[in-house]
């Protein structure tokens, strides 16, 4: 399998999904947060669809204890497919097959949840060489334009490309925050990054969100950093090290919809938005929602 397209764009993606998901307990005690349904598809399927729409053909899921159902979701189910075919239920048959047709899905186990950077480091031998995308399995983005632009920019610069979101001053301490210099359209050159700063210390309001295109050298940087914020091996620290050593680091400021499905509020917002957009249940759901909200206020 080639590591890039002929134009040099990465074709492999890594989805770290081995975290403990404490913000969504007790739902996530036995069920991975990535498998919580948004209407009728698990969150993770939307993420893999986003990757596939941006030209990714190979996805590595980094999983952990109790997370094997995640891989099963992307497998074939011949028994189910046969039953649906016999019943002539073509729509459901296509829906059941779809996850297995999006990309080649692989998995590896992290073993111990020692941080996002630690999870990414498990992808080294699968990636094999060249750049690759990282998509967090609990962040929903409503279209693949962002990832597309990021892949193009990385193919041109050869460095790190990260997705950025403008956040409120009171939110900066929940994110990695970047200082930036030159801007061209929605692309910016990054000059520094700091993990979870206080509002007074934050160099900007541009937060790092869950989409990254990383060069292969990130694996070496991950080996050279120690535990960071929260005692975890932080991906931000490895990127900051590469930046300090002269690697080009760019960001694309995202202007679309993004939800953190790893906590109840963000998850519910995703469900409501996507339910409203659906051609089948959308009209009835919207009508009910308007009436319900009107009654509650
Ligand atoms: P989060 O910061 O959301 O952590 O990780 P978490 O453990 O999943 O959830 P909370 O904060 O306890 O509720 C960001 C992403 O990195 C993955 C997570 O699965 C999530 O997609 N991750 C994090 C790993 O794969 N391994 C880790 O050791 C840590």
From TrEMBL:
InterPro entries: GalU_uridylyltTrfase_bac/arc, NTP_transferase_dom, Nucleotide-diphossugar_trans
Keyword field contains Nucleotidyltransferase: yes
Cited SUPFAM superfamilies: Nucleotide-diphospho-sugar transferases (SSF53448)
Catalytic class of the enzyme: transferase
Catalysed reaction, written as an equation: alpha-D-glucose 1-phosphate + UTP + H(+) = UDP-alpha-D-glucose + diphosphate
Pfam families recorded: NTP_transferase
Entry keywords, A to Z: Nucleotidyltransferase, Transferase
EC number: 2.7.7.9
GO BP terms in the entry: UDP-alpha-D-glucose metabolic process
Domain Nucleotidyl transferase: 12-269
CDD domains: UGPase_prokaryotic
Keyword Zinc-finger on entry: no
Leader sequence residues: none
Gene Ontology molecular function, alphabetical: UTP:glucose-1-phosphate uridylyltransferase activity
Top-level taxonomic group: Bacteria
Family statement drawn from the similarity comment of this UniProt entry: Belongs to the UDPGP type 2 family.
Protein name: UTP--glucose-1-phosphate uridylyltransferase
Organism expressing this protein natively: Virgisporangium aurantiacum
Native organism taxonomy: Bacteria, Bacillati, Actinomycetota, Actinomycetes, Micromonosporales
């Amino acid at each position: 399998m080639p590591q890039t397209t002929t134009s040099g764009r990465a074709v492999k993606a890594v989805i770290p999904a081995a975290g403990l998901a404490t913000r969504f307990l007790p739902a996530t005690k036995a069920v991975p947060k990535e498998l919580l349904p948004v209407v009728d598809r698990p969150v993770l399927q939307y993420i893999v669809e986003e990757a596939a729409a941006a030209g990714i053909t190979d996805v590595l899921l980094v999983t952990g204890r109790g997370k094997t159902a995640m891989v099963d979701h992307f497998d074939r189910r011949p028994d189910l497919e046969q039953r649906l075919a016999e019943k002539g239920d073509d729509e459901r048959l296509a829906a059941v097959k779809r996850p297995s047709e999006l990309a080649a899905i692989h998995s590896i186990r992290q073993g111990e949840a020692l941080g996002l950077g630690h999870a990414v480091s498990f992808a080294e031998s699968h990636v094999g060489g060249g750049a690759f995308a990282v998509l967090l399995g609990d962040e929903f983005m409503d279209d693949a334009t962002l990832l597309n632009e990021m892949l193009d920019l990385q193919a041109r610069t050869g460095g790190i490309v990260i997705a950025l979101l403008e956040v409120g001053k009171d939110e900066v301490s929940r994110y990695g925050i970047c200082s930036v210099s030159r801007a061209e359209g929605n692309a910016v050159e990054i000059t520094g990054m700091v993990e979870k700063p206080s509002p007074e210390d934050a160099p900007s309001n541009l937060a790092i969100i869950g989409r990254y295109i990383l060069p292969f050298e990130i694996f070496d940087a991950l080996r050279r950093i120690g535990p960071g914020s929260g005692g975890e091996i932080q991906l931000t620290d490895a990127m900051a090290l590469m930046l300090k050593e002269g690697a080009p680091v760019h960001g694309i400021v995202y202007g679309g919809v993004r939800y953190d499905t790893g906590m109840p509020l963000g998850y519910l917002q995703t469900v409501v938005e996507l339910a409203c957009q659906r051609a089948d249940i959308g009209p009835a759901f919207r009508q009910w929602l308007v009436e319900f909200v009107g009654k509650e206020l």
